[in-house]
Amino acid sequence: MKPENNHGLKRIFRATGFSMQGLRLAWVHEAAFRQELMLAIIMLPIALLVDITTVERLFLILTLFIVLIVELLNSAIEAVVDRIGHEIHPLSGQAKDVASAAVFMSLALCGITWAVILTSRYL
Hints:
CATH topology: Helix Hairpins
Distance between the termini: 59 Å
Largest sheet: none
Number of domains: 1
Number of helices: 4
Mean pLDDT: 95
């Protein structure tokens, strides 16, 4: 049953609570999210400390967030597919593979961005 429609600040607080619950669930149940979050926690101070322009710094930080966002979406897709059923079906595999490819592409974007910015500065 769907809860009553909330408006204003109450809706914002409830939505924030659901978001925090989603982050907690991803941390507890998704090893890839934990790994990527730990990597982001390590890389964020580097992005803040290196001698680069503000725009370059923003790109480094944005790509870290993009990886985490795409991983959360991948985890959500996998959960929905698993909820529907565990039997092998080509469309279930396709959905999971495409979501995984999105994570791969976000990681590639992050790696390329970091490599280009840091090598252009320091090599």
